[in-house]
Design goal:
Oligomer: single chain
Structural class: mainly alpha
Largest sheet: none
Shape: globular
Number of helices: 7
Order of helices and strands: HHHHHHH
Distance between the termini: 24 Å
């Protein structure tokens, strides 16, 4: 189903976009600080922030929250693809790779099985920075 098949002519849930951005910012706060000690929790928090940031972009574009919840659920890769179609200027470098890495764990509520050796401290900073860039780029 198209990302835009449920775009509301009335603006839908645009009023939620800023709330989603604020929540994404909250989830990102401290991720880099805990990543070396609690990498799975940092990954989970980064995934939540990424989901909220991308959905914020879609909400601002006019896609309904109900459509996001029903069709995107927690699929970060699909959310990124839809956000690009909704005008997200080229996402920060590596964001697609991070989304692809996190999605299998995030969509299945399985971050307890995330292989922590996949991410270094620099990777956490980069992933968090990519999400912050999306939050800052949101309309």
């Amino acid at each position: 189903m198209s990302c835009f098949s449920h775009r509301s002519a009335r603006g839908g849930d645009r009023h939620l976009a800023s709330l989603f951005r604020e929540n994404a910012t909250e989830f990102l706060s401290g991720v880099e600080d805990i990543a070396s000690v609690y990498p799975r929790e940092a990954g989970h928090m980064t995934s939540i922030a990424m989901e909220l940031a991308l959905k914020s972009h879609l909400l601002a574009f006019g896609v309904s929250d109900d459509w996001n919840r029903t069709h995107l659920r927690h699929d970060l890769t699909k959310a990124l693809r839809c956000a690009r179609r909704a005008g997200l200027v080229e996402p920060p470098g590596g964001m697609a790779a991070v989304a692809a890495l996190f999605t299998p764990y995030y969509t299945n509520h399985a971050f307890n099985r995330f292989p922590t050796t996949l991410f270094t401290a620099a990777d956490w900073r980069h992933a968090a920075g990519a999400v912050r860039a999306v939050i800052g780029d949101a309309p």
